[in-house]
Amino acid sequence: MRKGDGMPDALSEHYADLLEGSYDCVDRLVLNAYFRMGHSGGGFRAWWQKLYGSEEHLDNAHLMRLAGRFGRRLRAFAKARNIPVVDCKRGERKHEIAEAYLARHTGKPGLFLILVSKAQAPVWEISGKCHLERKKPMPYVNHYSFHIWDPEWGHITLKISGHPPFPAQVILNGHEYVACQARRKKIDFEKEGNCFTRITDAAGLAQIADTLSEERMIGRLTEVCERWIYTTCLCFALSLEEQQRSEFHYQYSVYQAEYSRNLLFQRGARMEQVFQAMVDRSRAPLGIERVKTLLGCKRRPTFHRKDSPSRRWGVVVEKPTYDLTVFKIVCRRITLKIYTKGERVLRLEALVHNTKELGCGRELIRFPRIVVRLRQLLERFVQVLSWVDFCFIADETLEQLPQSAWVGQTRVGGIDLNQARMRAVAEAVVTLAALPRGFSASTLATEVQSRGQAEYTPRRATYDLKKFRAKQLVCKIEHTRRYESTRNGVRALTALLVLCDKVIRPLLAAACRLQRHRQTRNLTVVDQHYETLRSTMSKLFIELGIAA
């Protein structure tokens, strides 16, 4: 079902009969724009000399005057052209303010809103005899968010500090880019918030979305930044002539990035049923303590409306119209999520809050590698979800687990899940299976300790991991001291844990019950199965002579 690489993932393949289409897309992108020379003392002095010809006026008064000039010029420019300038208070959700103005925007390219707020930024100060140093702690200064409508990228935001060296951030959205390009190619679709809910040409739209991962996107990202940052933002601090004279030029790096896989179901009610069942089955094995649900004001329709060619894309303010359930796993600066979006879209998402965490570089030229790395993280997350959701255990596994085995030239004991410690280790291995870079023995020990095994140490974890490696339930990542769960390992351990917790224990407890409790009137499907098994197992225990 998934377009782009020709290989469907396990979830898409399993629910293929229920899907109308799917596509992968790079979502929110945050690029850091920085003037490299201005972030070192010597470089800043050299730039100042180019700007003013000497260091005679390099003092705190002129530095503050430069920042004040930024704000005055900006407000005068906005007043002359009737562009709203909104001073945001602490705690205000600035994206909601921008969306309110965006809903009334005509779609004409250019600047349509400026938001002013305070945030931390590097600020230079002069101390002693012309000694240049950074203010510590980093002070809160005015930041100006320029909300711009770009013909190729839709709504983009440039946030810039008013103090030299004027560091900036460029915030883009991949779905906005795909929407603009789809309109050019006359692909009809319906967009709700940050997702496509109806697509007439799913293959064509998926092909556009795939271009966000290509090498040439480096040039397009640079182009959209250069198109606005000098003439629309920096010009209030430095005129174009001053920019050229001082050789002020930004460089760009990727700070944050999101990558999503979107599954379009034919029916929203069916999607909700499938997803809630998946959450119920996967929540306990993956150690999710809390699932966040926002209640909407409408029920998803059982049957979707017919597509209309007259429907065109428009800006829609995203609201929790339908119930929104978020299933999230956080690992340091990486977040993996699966949640419902809009009427009938199920989205899987990988988000890196700081691309330094990926270990593949942050320069803009590394953008394709960052996307590939995010895709790998997402596919690992999808794999683990599918393994937990469709768990399976072979007949011989129960017999082989308690037997000893070999790891290289070392003989290790078997795995007895009747022991509380080994059960805790098995649960921890399944819980850590979704971590992007695997897990270490120390991480496993910490997870086991949280399950009531206070005396469990990393040394014991190392020995127990050898047992799991001997049974091919866990493998070691090459050239590292980290481990990751295997496909058969996750499926087998999940099946064993579910069998013990959800089948054997309830049946034994129900079969040994001396008094019959009044039966509940409204039984769920699972409760009905339990009741049937309970009555059958009770008769079996009587025949075997083990019933009370």
Write the layout of secondary structure elements.
Blueprint: H1 10-14, E1 19-34, H2 41-52, H3 60-80, E2 85-87, H4 94-103, E3 110-120, E4 124-127, E5 131-134, E6 140-150, E7 154-161, E8 168-173, H5 174-184, E9 189-192, E10 195-199, H6 202-210, H7 217-233, H8 240-246, E11 251-265, H9 268-283, E12 292-294, E13 324-331, E14 334-341, E15 345-352, H10 367-389, H11 397-400, E16 405-407, E17 410-412, H12 420-431, H13 441-449, H14 458-470, E18 474-476, E19 483-485, H15 487-511, H16 525-544
Parallel strand pairs: 2-3
Antiparallel strand pairs: 1-8, 1-11, 3-6, 4-5, 6-7, 7-8, 9-10, 11-15, 12-13, 13-14, 14-15, 16-17, 18-19
Describe this structure in words.
This protein has 548 residues and is an alpha+beta fold. The protein has 16 helices and 19 strands. The strands form 5 sheets. Strands 2-3-6-7-8-1-11-15-14-13-12 form an 11-stranded mixed beta sheet, sandwiched between helices. Strands 4-5 form a two-stranded antiparallel ribbon. A hairpin with a 3-residue loop joins strand 6 (140-150) and strand 7 (154-161). The chain is elongated. The two termini are 54 Å apart.
Tell me how many strands there are: 19
How far apart are the termini?
54 Å
Low-confidence stretches: 1-6, 303-320
> Which value, in Å, is the CA radius of gyration?
29 Å
| Averaged pLDDT | 84
- Tell me, briefly, the overall form: elongated
Strand content: 15-25%
Strand arrangement, largest sheet?
Answer: 2-3-6-7-8-1-11-15-14-13-12
Structural class: alpha+beta
* Tally of helical segments: 16
Q: Level of helix content?
A: 25-40%
**Major pleated sheet:** 11 strands, mixed
